[in-house]
Amino acid sequence: MLLKNNIEAVQGNPYLDQGKFFTAGLSYNYNPTSQYAISTFWTFTRLSNIIASEYKPGEFQGRPVMVQRFVNNGFCAANNYGVNMMFKCLNSNLRLNVGVRGSTQLNRTLAYYKGTYLNYFGQATYILNQFYFRASYNSRSTMIGIGSRTKAPDYYSILAGWGNGNWNIEAFAFNPSVGNYRSTSMLTDIGPYSSWSETYSSSYHRQFGLSVRYSFSYGKKVQQGEKLGPVQGAESGLLNTTD
Question: Residue 138 — φ and ψ, nearest 5°?
Answer without folding.
Answer: -135, 120
